[in-house]
Amino acid sequence: MIYVDADACPVxxxxxxxxxxxxxxxxxxxxxxxxxxxxxxxxxxxxxxxxDVADMWIAERAGPGDVVITTDIPLAAKAVEAGAHxxxxxxxxxxxxxxxxxxGHARPHV
Length: 110
Description:
Elements lengths: L1 E4 L6 H11 L3 E5 L11 E5 L6 H9 L5 E4 L2 H9 L3 E4 L7 H8 L7
Parallel strand pairs: 1-2, 1-4, 2-3, 4-5
Helix pairs in contact: 2-3, 3-4
């Protein structure tokens, strides 16, 4: 599954192209205002308005094997902690250690 923090994501069309090529489902998560895709692999999930509501929805569901595309560092950190792969909206994968460095928190010893 690919989860996209879609409200401000500049690569939604590219995500859909990649998902179609690889036959992977996508959930575009937003507070509204995004046109649904006709692609059966792409589902638009509209959450309530509010700070970080879309982020929390994604963080509660992302897990091992999933990909989370976001510009939100705390969301990406939560996704990586849950075993998902994080990618910035510019298609750069981020090493899990980078999240701890960018957020300024101490990395837990696991």
